[in-house]
Design goal:
Layout: H1 2-27, H2 33-36, E1 40-41, E2 44-45, H3 46-70, H4 72-87
Antiparallel strand pairs: 1-2
Helix pairs in contact: 1-3
Length: 88
């Protein structure tokens, strides 16, 4: 049970980090402009934000897979009930 709770919490945290870094990456100056002006946000520069985004995205995929494995029975049960309901 602790593994499921921890995995769900970690999936949520990684999703939030991935979303935040994605928004920052979208809003940051493009290309060399960020380097020319010395762009920083919360003390991190463009490559650091990109690295955090890549690592959090990779971890999200891995932890999301573990989350899927932990919740496989519940997912199958949900789909089974949904299909049965729509057949009627």
């Amino acid at each position: 049970m602790r593994g499921r709770v921890f995995t769900s919490f970690l999936t949520l945290i990684l999703f939030v980090v991935m979303t935040l870094t994605g928004v920052v990456a979208y809003l940051m100056p493009q290309g060399k402009v960020a380097y020319w002006v010395g762009w920083h946000f919360w003390g991190l520069d463009k490559p650091q934000w990109g690295s955090i985004h890549m690592v959090s995205s990779l971890l999200f995929v891995v932890v999301g897979g573990v989350h899927l494995v932990y919740n496989w029975k519940a997912l199958l049960s949900y789909f089974s009930r949904t299909v049965d309901r729509h057949r009627r």
